[in-house]
């Protein structure tokens, strides 16, 4: 069953967000926080005008991190002593001036970022990906959603499938994810989707990732100013979105899909020696799994009854 929105609903929401958003570059001396109103207000001085916005949770966390204020203490001031929070934030804005990017959506500050933050946004990402999806036969949207912090899109090509073992059918697909508020890179990752358990395996070998880091936006002066959406994408950004299209096509390329399936078949023939618990511990140490995650993987491995490397792979995806 598909989760979230349809592609049409996603496109409509991203278009709406593009029209409703505002992005600013500002010296922190042109910024101020006012916690006297419920939820707080964020003030941006633009010449003779002052823009006033509410502040989202992510932006609060990023302001605290930038000013090196422990977030639990930040929250305590926010709840119990808001004027002290204003004194701290506004004082450090003036004491240690720096240029920041402020991202606003629907009148709410959603992110407080470095002025080197590169805007690789959801609308451009979908504009690159959706035409390729439309070219595919039997492409199925498994999940599609945009939240306050992330965009997620999972697509499976039901026509491109194979059996790893008897009755163990997998299909080719890909996963797209992005964050416009500094909580993750833009990623396009090929996916092997296993029908028996509805879990997926990300194929890192053919993935594309782009961090939201770029050159500093040219400084005009110490004042704040708005960045407009109709600015031409930098040439390297255009090149990256072309690579995104190539990665999506690669994800449903029959030859590459069967190479991955062959590797999975080979993994079925490699036993976990005499101690599957040790194999799980070694994997957990390598990927820094928590104790709960280690327990979940081990439980799934025993439930699956497959003490091969392929069984361990499936235990990880099912955990």
Structure summary:
Helix content is 41%, strand content 29%.
Can you describe this structure?
By secondary structure, this protein is α+β, with helices and mostly antiparallel strands. The chain has 3 domains: 20-114; 122-213 and 233-262, no CATH class; 269-318, no CATH class. The chain has helices spanning 7-20, 57-66, 71-80, 82-95, 122-135, 235-251, 254-268, 276-287, 291-304, 309-318; strands at 3-4, 21-27, 31-34, 41-46, 49-55, 99-105, 108-114, 139-146, 151-165, 168-178, 186-194, 199-202, 208-210, 225-227. Strands 1, 8, 9, 10, 11, 12 and 13 form a 7-stranded mixed β-sheet that branches. It has a 7-stranded mixed β-sheet with strand order 3-4-5-7-6-2-14. A hairpin with a 2-residue loop joins β9 and β10. α1 packs antiparallel against α5, α5 packs parallel to α6 and α9 packs across α10. The mean pLDDT is 86.
Give the proportion of residues in helices: 40-55%
CA-based shape: globular
Average pLDDT score: 86
What distance lies between the first and last C-alpha atoms, to the nearest angstrom? 20 Å
- The figure for the number of domains is 3
Secondary-structure map:
Blueprint: E1 3-4, H1 7-20, E2 21-27, E3 31-34, E4 41-46, E5 49-55, H2 57-66, H3 71-80, H4 82-95, E6 99-105, E7 108-114, H5 122-135, E8 139-146, E9 151-165, E10 168-178, E11 186-194, E12 199-202, E13 208-210, E14 225-227, H6 235-251, H7 254-268, H8 276-287, H9 291-304, H10 309-318
Parallel strand pairs: 1-8, 5-7
Antiparallel strand pairs: 2-6, 2-14, 3-4, 4-5, 6-7, 8-9, 9-10, 10-11, 11-12, 11-13
Helix pairs in contact: 1-5, 3-4, 5-6, 8-9, 9-10
């Amino acid at each position: 069953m598909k989760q979230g929105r349809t592609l049409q609903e996603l496109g409509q929401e991203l278009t709406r967000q593009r029209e409703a958003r505002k992005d600013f570059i500002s010296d922190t001396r042109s910024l101020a926080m006012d916690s006297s109103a419920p939820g707080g207000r964020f003030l941006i001085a633009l010449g003779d005008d002052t823009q006033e916005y509410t502040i989202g949770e992510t932006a609060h966390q990023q302001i605290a991190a930038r000013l090196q204020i422990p977030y639990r203490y930040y929250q305590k001031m926010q709840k119990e002593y808001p004027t002290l929070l204003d004194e701290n934030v506004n004082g450090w804005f003036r004491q240690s001036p720096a240029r920041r990017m402020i991202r606003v959506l629907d009148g709410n500050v959603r992110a407080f970022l470095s002025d080197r933050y590169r805007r690789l946004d959801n609308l451009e990402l979908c504009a690159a990906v959706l035409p390729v999806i439309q070219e595919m036969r039997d492409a199925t949207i498994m999940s599609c959603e945009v939240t306050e912090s992330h965009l997620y899109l999972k697509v499976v090509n039901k026509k491109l499938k194979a059996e790893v073992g008897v009755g163990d059918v997998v299909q080719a697909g890909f996963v797209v994810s992005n964050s416009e508020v500094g909580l993750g890179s833009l990623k396009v990752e090929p996916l092997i989707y296993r029908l028996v358990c509805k879990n997926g395996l990300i194929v890192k070998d053919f993935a594309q990732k782009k961090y939201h880091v770029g050159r500093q936006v040219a400084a005009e002066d110490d004042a704040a100013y708005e960045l407009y959406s109709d600015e031409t994408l930098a040439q390297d950004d255009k090149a990256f979105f072309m690579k995104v299209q190539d990665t999506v096509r690669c994800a449903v390329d029959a030859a590459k899909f069967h190479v991955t399936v062959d590797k999975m078949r080979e993994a079925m023939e490699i036993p976990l020696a005499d101690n599957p618990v040790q194999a799980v511990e070694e994997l957990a140490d390598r990927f820094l799994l928590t104790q709960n995650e280690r327990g979940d993987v081990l439980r799934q491995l025993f439930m699956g009854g497959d003490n091969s490397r392929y069984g361990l792979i499936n235990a990880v995806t099912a955990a």
